[in-house]
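Hello again, I could really use a second opinion on something today. I've dropped the whole record in just underneath, so have a look.
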Amino acid sequence: MKQKFYDLRSDTITLPTRDMRKAMYRADVGDDVYGEDPTVIKLQELAAKITGKRDALFIPSGSMGNLIPLMINGGRGNEILAQKNSHILHYELSSAAALAGVTIVPVEGERGIIEPTELAKHVRPDIYYMPRVSMISVENTHNKEGGSCWSLEELKAVSDFAKKQNLLLHMDGARLFNACIAKGIAAKRYCGLVDTVTFCLSKGLGAPVGAVLCGSTKFIEEARRIRKMLGAGMRQAGFMAAAGIYALEHHIERLADDHRHASQIAQALTEKSWATINPSDVETNILYFDTPNHDAVQVAAILKKRGIVCGPSGEKTIRMVTHLGIDDQDAEEICKVISNCSI
């Protein structure tokens, strides 16, 4: 009998469901560069409605959704403040510097949450030979900090600080809807506190590709130009947009299942001597655990032999991410494998 593997490397490995594929097949399409793809238009209108923003733009990736605001609102030679473990700082190939001409300044912040007192330390005096801070970027949920979520109070404090300092505020909301489900906060309430927001369709929502960038009408008009500049003018993109529409209409509420599965797995790991984790830190679908007495690569290799595929994230840290492809029975089997695994 062929061994079954449970892939917990990321929620990006999900495959379109049968119904999502049907929606893609049936999509009406046109040339989106001319603004004539009806399904892309429908997706953008839906995204704007959900986030409460005036307009939205379908783009290939969340990384582009972070880069475009940097290019428009950052300003060459300026600085952007972001928590020190942010995706925008560590995992986007220094595109901020290489393409947008801005510097990302790392800011201290426990579990990915930055406070005005820390931000204030990095706002420079207005002297001609010093770079200006022009933007703040927040990440919700925060990938490298274990899927942690912002509260409305925390985000409002940063929003108020940004307004006081005349700074723009961007949200990297790659997993925004995980935060919405975990905190019971509507996307509109989060997004009402920021100037621009991007969210991914291809992570927990289960679409094969794509993200949406949302903001004011003027901002999105310029974003459309920058998207083209970056080589991302898409033609009959409605097939992909249809997957995004289906995801937004059918896959948001089910994110609670992913969160529950992550908590189950975290609990199973607490019972193993080779793993260290605090289950209360698992807020959404991402969990990190330490392997204090073992090399993380070796532990991951042993787990893979037993059917669990996961990703080392440091010498003694491993990341697991639950997703659409892991159901209740799978989660139970994963916990059994962990319980029976000796290292």
About this structure: The chain has 14 helices and twelve strands. Residues 255-270 form the longest helix (16 residues). The first strand starts at residue 6 and ends at 7.
